[in-house]
Design a protein that fits this description.
By secondary structure, the protein is an alpha+beta fold. 53% of the residues lie in helices and 11% in strands. The protein folds into 2 domains: 3-173, NADH Oxidase (3-Layer(aba) Sandwich); 179-209, no CATH class. The chain has helices at 3-10, 24-35, 54-63, 69-72, 84-93, 102-125, 140-147, 166-170, 179-182, 193-204, 211-223, 226-244; strands at 46-50, 75-82, 129-133, 153-162. The longest helix has 24 residues, at 102-125. The termini are far apart. The model has no long low-confidence stretch (mean pLDDT 97).
């Protein structure tokens, strides 16, 4: 493996950090790496919020499902899908234009997430851990007020960064599903029940793995959880407001 591929294989989510600061040089490299990401038509349909105000960090920690480590992270970035900047440019140039719609939003989400992934890969190469916080999609009204978001600007990813503590360094990376179940040839197809059970069994690796108990518990803890339902409510509200404009 070369250094980049090794970094991709070794990277895992880090939620506990040492007291070591992220230097300004490291921060600049992380941000500049994000900006080098592929982008649709070189539009860079995203904005990155560098959260430096500790009160905002603490508010985000509460809003994002009460996760105190967010407030303790040395670097907190929010990646926004931003369809406003180009609208303002079109208006400034007097160019006839339309209001952004669903396709524009999805394209901006792609841009924002690719930039975010560039940033975490860059951080990993510097020995800095990171964690995506999907809970930024929850509690729309509070997030909009806290971050002063426009109707056509949506928070797509919150990422925290810091030097991992010893426990995080030693913690093994969770195994992934085998490629045979995720990479399909040419056309999509649904996996049958036998394949689905095998997929989970191979990932778990234990002969006595109880698929039914595991999946039922996971469904209750995640898919049917209060925060998942709130995330979907907020996401629908974001999209409804976006499409109104």
């Amino acid at each position: 493996m070369n250094a980049i591929i090794r970094a991709l294989f070794e990277r895992k989510s880090v939620r506990a950090f040492t007291q070591e600061a992220i230097t300004e040089e490291e921060k600049e490299l992380i941000l500049e790496s994000a900006l080098q990401a592929p982008t649709a038509g070189n539009q860079m349909l995203y904005t990155i919020l560098d959260i430096q105000d500790q009160k905002i960090k603490e508010a985000l920690a509460e809003i994002c499902d009460h996760q105190p480590f967010i407030a303790r992270a040395p670097l907190v970035l929010v990646f926004l899908a931003d369809c406003r900047r180009w609208m303002d440019a079109y208006e400034a140039a007097g160019a006839p234009h339309r209001e952004p719609s669903a396709g524009d939003l999805l394209l901006a989400c792609e841009d924002a997430l690719v930039a975010a992934q560039n940033s975490v890969t860059a951080a990993q190469s510097l020995g800095i851990g990171s964690c995506y916080i999907g809970d930024i999609l929850e509690n729309r009204e509070e997030v909009v007020r806290l971050l002063n978001l426009d109707e056509v600007v949506l928070p797509i990813a919150l990422v925290v960064y810091g030097h991992p503590d010893e426990g995080q360094v030693k913690r093994p990376k969770p195994p992934r599903f085998s490629r045979e179940y995720v990479v399909l040839k040419d056309r999509y197809r649904r996996l049958d029940e036998k394949e689905i059970r095998e997929m989970f069994q191979k990932r778990n690796g234990q002969k006595d793995f109880d698929f039914d108990s595991y999946v039922r518990a996971f469904c209750e803890r995640k898919y049917m959880s209060r925060f998942a339902l709130e995330m979907n409510r907020s996401a629908a509200a974001y999209i409804e407001e976006f499409l109104k404009n």
